[in-house]
Structures are given as structure tokens and as C-alpha cells.
Write a structure and sequence with these properties.
alpha+beta, four-stranded antiparallel sheet, HPr family phosphocarrier protein, HPr-like, 25% strand, single chain
Length: 75
């Protein structure tokens, strides 16, 4: 199981992230505090707001999705 901290700055970042997540055939969750959202839900991820440190948890591995995670990774 892969876990990564990310920040999405605007609606375009959310769109790119969700499209990449949607192409994966495994579960991906994104959380902030006690809120847990399906990362394949555009409105769900958008509802978390921008510039927050979010935690992404993946139930599998996909090279293209991991590249997107690296793009938005928090150090």
C-alpha cells in the first residue's frame, strides 16, 4: 500500500489528479483530517479545498499515477 502527502493548488490540479486516479483499477483514497474521499470523485476532491496537505492512499501501483503523485508531492 502506497501513501503520499500532496497539495493541489487549483481546479486544474484537481482535474489532472482525478483523471489519473480514474485510470487505475484499484482503490485510491484521499484524506484530510478525519475526512476520507474516493480520489476518483472530482466533486469530492474539489470539496476538500485547495492548498491543504492531503494524504493519498493507494491499494495498488501504477507508474503513470505515481508520476502524478510526485508532481503534487509535499516534501
Amino acid at each position: 500500500m502506497l501513501e503520499q502527502k500532496i497539495k493541489l493548488a487549483d481546479r486544474e490540479d484537481v482535474s489532472v489528479f482525478v483523471k489519473a486516479a480514474d485510470k487505475c483499477d484499484f482503490d485510491i483514497d484521499i484524506s484530510y483530517g478525519r475526512i476520507l474521499i474516493d480520489a476518483k470523485s472530482f466533486l469530492g476532491v474539489l470539496g476538500l479545498g485547495f492548498s491543504r496537505e492531503l494524504t493519498v492512499t493507494c491499494g495498488g501501483r501504477d507508474e503513470n499515477f505515481e508520476n502524478v503523485l510526485r508532481k503534487y508531492a509535499v516534501a
